[in-house]
Structures are given as structure tokens and as C-alpha cells.
Amino acid sequence: MPRPPRFTQEKVAVAAFDIVRDDGEESLTARSLAEKLGCSVKPIFGLFDTMDEVRQAVWERANAWYLERLDAAMSAGDRPPYLASGLAYIEFARTEPNLFTLLFMHRRTPEQMEQSGIQLRPVIELIARRLGVGYDEAYAFHMRMWVYVHGIASMIVTGYLDWDETFTERSLSDMFHALSEYTETKQGSEMDAI
């Protein structure tokens, strides 16, 4: 009976994920991965054709982990779901800076962009229901809010800000209400023009 393989794609992906999580994406090389696994690079390239495939597996694992945390925050019920999503994004930047950088601070592939668009749909629908607007207006609202949230998260991950959770929550709430008022005013002025 043949011996089960010592390495699997899953085991290699987990080791690569750990390297990126601990030391950043730039630390993931075939050599560092082989060292982590305690092997030569041969088993890695027996399971993956290129390091880009390994990086994609790490991105998928990191994205799934982020989405689990996001979903948990939004469904916890201690805050409105949209506010919870922004706070979870910022908290992810604070607690997982290397994974945040991997997911949100570099150019994405077309496949990653498509996947993100699909994942974003429920959030846009939530905004549309909350504000009583169509999908396109809710999308525009979210993009404006996202720039603000991403700016805070990026400044935290790069060390420019060190806001505590209370101040961050108040800031996000203030921006949400300001954008809500802008959206309502804009809708009213469009109705006046008709």
C-alpha cells in the first residue's frame, strides 16, 4: 500500500498563509516556504506550478478568514450591521496588518475584483434598504463611505493613526450620518427638478 503523501496543497497553503500572516507577503518565497515545511522546494512545485499559484491560495485563505470575521461582526447584533462591517474592517487592519496589506493594499487580479464585487452585493442591498434608495445610489454611498473607512484602516496599518475603538466608532457614525443627509438632500433636489 502506498504511503500517503507527506504534503498536500492544503498543508502548503497553510504554511504559506502563516508566513504571510507573520512576516508579510514579501517574505513568501519558495525557499522560505520549503524551510517552514522542512523540505526542499520540490514538493511545493509538485503541488503548485508556480509561486503565483501559492500566492493565490494564500489570498483565498486570507479572504475567507476576513469574511468570516466580517460576517461574525455583522451578525453579532451589538451594532448596526453596516457600522459593524466598517469597524471589523478597521479592526482587521489593526490586528492583522500583513493580511490586510495582502488583501486591500495592492493591485488585484480581475478574478479577485469579480469575487469582491459578488461579496459586496449584500452590503449594497443592506444600504439600499436602510436608505430607501436604488442599488446604484447605494453603491455610490458605499464607495464614498468605503474611501473613508479604508483611509482610516490604511493609516492605522501604516502607523499614521492609533485611534481607539470608541473614537473610530464615533467617526464612522458621524460620516454615515453626514452621507445619509447628503443622499437625502440630493434625492430631494432631484425630485424638485422634475
TrEMBL record:
Keyword Protease: no
Keywords (A to Z) from UniProt: Transcription, Transcription regulation
Domain of life: Bacteria
Descriptive protein name: HTH-type transcriptional regulator MT1864/Rv1816-like C-terminal domain-containing protein
Domain HTH-type transcriptional regulator MT1864/Rv1816-like C-terminal: 84-178
Pfam families noted in UniProt: TetR_C_33
UniProt keyword annotation of Repeat present: no
